[in-house]
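Researcher: Sequence recovery benchmark, item below. Answer with residues only.
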């Protein structure tokens, strides 16, 4: 066995003697390859029977054992050795497994070679064989059950999907990294089973043929970052734009429609460590807010049996980004923050000072701001960059109007129902790359403006009344009503077009 480009290497030995041509009759060595860990694999072919065997030899060339013996040219195990030898050993025109691809979605292809199955990386030509109770799984072994998909999973191993061609049911196997069956992950599920549909996102495949990869159901609501999806009679918390998420559970069982009488789930939103789920009683008009963990399991009631006029219900509206109580307004309580992660067309009111509205995508905000902003209330346009390219405009003058904020790339148009003027708006960086707008200015901003005016006034006085004129009686020359007005303390009228931020 000589390394490519070299001219020496160990001699092939059998029972401490050099192997010679014809020693084993029609068996002829046809390939050799070094293997990791030391030693070599040697491929043999029987020119009479067409069978193959693979020897394992040590680093000195001594025969150790047969790795494969008496295999036919169509043996899948032989074909997997072709990738080691970098050689088409059986002459079928393919190096590696030559079979039928059952599916090639995702990162793993399920390949049928003869009657057996292999999990092969997409674009690859070798992988572990599917095994059950230490034997290769073969086509027809489980009657009408047929493998339809395979995919590698995090942590090692694979998920294998099966379909029963007679009953239309499905099951999912969990197998280890060597292809050995470990357990059923799902068994005897119908085509409409929601858990089956969640597995579709793993297999990157529409397993049940309903035209959708993932959960196919009815959106109860899609406000905020989380949508509440009803699939059949069950509920799922799914990221907006996504197709999978945890199922809503109560006392270890899936929650189903009608389980709690007139109570119906109307909204869900993710928060740190889990979700909040809003319920409304269609008979009494009362509300409940559940807290559930990240797996969808009920933990506790946050509010229970409160009326639509309850301040507690209104206080949850910014979290759900939804007018839960149907009064037409979402109120941001004093000191709280509401972040709009998607489109919004309703009305928002600040319930007091130091409230914050964060608009992630300015172009998708078509709502209105009711009432009047208080000191400390902030509208934060997350995608509008503060700086020299940013500008403010307002269509009104001491009246309702449209506030336009733009950086030349993103533009927000916000209808304000209160009384506003452009001169009173102040814009600044939000500290995270966006632009914050307030009206009236914060106390610190008012102080800064006043300090600038006082400084200008001082400069004016110093230049107009020189210290060299101390002998002059200024009081006799100018009465208090004759002092000229310094220009920066004159009445200021701001332009009503565009002002740079």
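Model:
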């Amino acid at each position: 066995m000589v390394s490519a480009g070299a001219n020496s290497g160990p001699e092939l030995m059998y029972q401490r003697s050099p192997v010679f041509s014809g020693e084993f009759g029609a068996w002829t060595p046809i390939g050799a390859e070094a293997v990791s860990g030391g030693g070599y694999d040697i491929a043999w072919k029987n020119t009479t029977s067409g069978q193959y065997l693979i020897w394992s030899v040590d680093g000195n060339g001594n025969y150790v054992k047969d790795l494969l013996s008496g295999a036919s040219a169509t043996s899948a195990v032989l074909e997997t050795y072709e990738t080691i030898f970098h050689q088409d050993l059986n002459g079928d025109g393919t190096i590696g497994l030559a079979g039928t691809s059952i599916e090639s979605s995702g990162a793993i292809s399920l390949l049928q070679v003869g009657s057996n199955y292999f999990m092969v990386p997409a674009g690859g030509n070798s992988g572990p064989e599917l095994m059950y109770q230490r034997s290769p799984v073969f086509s027809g072994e489980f009657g009408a059950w047929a493998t339809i998909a395979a995919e590698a999973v995090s942590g090692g191993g694979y998920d294998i999907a099966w379909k029963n061609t007679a009953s239309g049911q499905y099951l999912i196997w969990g197998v280890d990294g060597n292809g050995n069956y470990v357990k059923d992950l799902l068994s005897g599920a119908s085509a409409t089973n929601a858990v089956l549909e969640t597995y579709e996102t793993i297999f990157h495949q529409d397993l049940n043929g309903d035209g959708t990869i993932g959960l196919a159901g009815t959106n109860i609501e899609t406000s905020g970052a989380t949508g509440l999806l009803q699939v059949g009679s069950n509920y799922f918390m799914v990221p907006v734009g996504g197709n999978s998420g945890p199922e809503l559970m109560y006392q270890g069982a899936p929650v189903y429609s009608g389980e709690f009488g007139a109570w119906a789930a109307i909204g869900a939103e993710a928060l740190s460590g889990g979700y909040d789920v809003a319920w409304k009683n269609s008979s009494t008009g009362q509300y409940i807010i559940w807290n559930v963990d990240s797996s969808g399991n009920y933990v506790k009631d946050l509010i229970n049996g409160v009326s639509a006029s309850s301040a507690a219900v209104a206080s949850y509206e910014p979290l759900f980004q939804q007018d839960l109580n149907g009064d037409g307004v979402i109120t941001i309580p004093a000191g709280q923050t509401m972040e709009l992660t998607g489109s919004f067309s309703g009305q928002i009111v600040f319930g007091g000072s130091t409230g914050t509205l964060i608009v992630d995508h300015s172009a998708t905000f078509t709502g209105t701001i009711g009432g009047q902003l208080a000191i400390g209330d902030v509208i934060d346009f997350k995608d509008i960059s503060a700086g020299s390219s940013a500008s403010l405009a307002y269509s009104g003058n001491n009246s309702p109007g449209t506030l336009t904020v733009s950086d030349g790339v993103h533009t927000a148009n916000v209808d304000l129902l209160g009384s506003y003027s452009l001169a009173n708006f102040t814009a600044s960086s939000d500290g995270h790359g966006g632009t914050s707008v307030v009206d009236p200015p914060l106390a610190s901003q008012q102080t800064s403006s006043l300090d600038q005016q006082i400084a200008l006034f001082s400069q004016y006085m110093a230049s107009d009344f020189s210290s060299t004129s101390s002998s002059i009686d200024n009081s006799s020359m100018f009465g208090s009503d004759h002092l000229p007005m310094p220009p920066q303390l004159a009445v200021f009228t701001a332009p009503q077009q565009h002002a740079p931020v």
